[in-house]
């Protein structure tokens, strides 16, 4: 069994809270400022390729929002990410990784959205972090790997578009 020092527990707590802040931005904030969580060389690695840097990552989310407006009922989509099996690996005082399972629930339309039959997707994720000069943490890489895909037509459409 792994043991954590008090300093390592604080790091693990900070990283997990940052992950939750990021997901709050995606789920409740409309992904309008998602790029701010990444370093200048940070990457969001998808099946269709990597988006590097805050501007490119924000452009990815802006395009996704355009697709929601275009393809979803009333131009809206309600989604929630949940995390399981979160494990923190501290490499040194300035670098760490969270490994976790992301269970994503989503449906067309505004909340409360109806018709949910199960998770939209389940992914195994790796989130790498680097401490900044001011002591704050930013993501250097977010790499989800789809393990299961539900019956969510929009999710399937987005994955097919990413692979082109």
Summing up helix and strand content along with how strands pair, one would put the structural category as: alpha+beta
What name is given to the CATH topology? Nuclear Transport Factor 2, Chain: A
Tally the structural domains. Answer: 1
Largest sheet: 6 strands, mixed
User: Cα distance, first to last residue?
Assistant: 44 Å
Q: How confident overall, as mean pLDDT?
A: 93
Q: What's the alpha carbon Rg, rounded to whole Å?
A: 16 Å
Question: Which architecture does the CATH hierarchy give at level 2?
Answer: Roll
Tell me what the structure shows.
The protein has a single domain, classed as Nuclear Transport Factor 2, Chain: A, CATH 3.10.450.50. It has 3 helices and 6 strands. It has helices at 6-27, 54-71, 153-162, and strands at 38-46, 49-52, 77-92, 95-108, 121-131, 137-149. Strands 2-1-6-5-4-3 form a 6-stranded mixed beta sheet. The longest helix is centred in the first third of the chain and has 22 residues, at 6-27. The model has no long low-confidence stretch (mean pLDDT 93).
Short description:
The chain is an alpha+beta fold and about 160 residues long.
Keywords:
3 helices, 6 strands, alpha+beta, six-stranded mixed sheet, Nuclear Transport Factor 2, Chain: A, globular, 164 residues
Q: Helix and strand layout, with pairings?
A:
Blueprint: H1 6-27, E1 38-46, E2 49-52, H2 54-71, E3 77-92, E4 95-108, E5 121-131, E6 137-149, H3 153-162
Parallel strand pairs: 1-6
Antiparallel strand pairs: 1-2, 3-4, 4-5, 5-6
């Amino acid at each position: 069994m792994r043991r954590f020092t008090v300093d390592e527990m604080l790091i693990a707590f900070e990283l997990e809270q940052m992950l939750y802040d990021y997901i709050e931005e995606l789920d409740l904030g409309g992904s309008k400022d998602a790029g701010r969580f990444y370093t200048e060389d940070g990457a969001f690695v998808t099946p269709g390729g990597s988006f590097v840097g805050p501007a490119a990552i924000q452009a990815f989310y802006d395009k996704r929002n355009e697709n929601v407006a275009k393809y979803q009922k009333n131009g809206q989509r309600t989604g929630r990410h949940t995390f399981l099996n979160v494990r923190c690996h501290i490499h040194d005082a300035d670098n760490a990784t969270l490994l976790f399972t992301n269970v994503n629930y989503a449906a067309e339309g505004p909340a409360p959205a109806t018709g949910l039959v199960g998770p939209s997707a389940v992914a195994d994720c790796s989130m790498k972090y680097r401490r900044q000069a001011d002591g704050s943490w930013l993501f250097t890489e977010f790499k989800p790997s789809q393990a299961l895909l539900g019956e969510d037509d929009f999710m399937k459409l987005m994955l097919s578009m990413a692979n082109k």
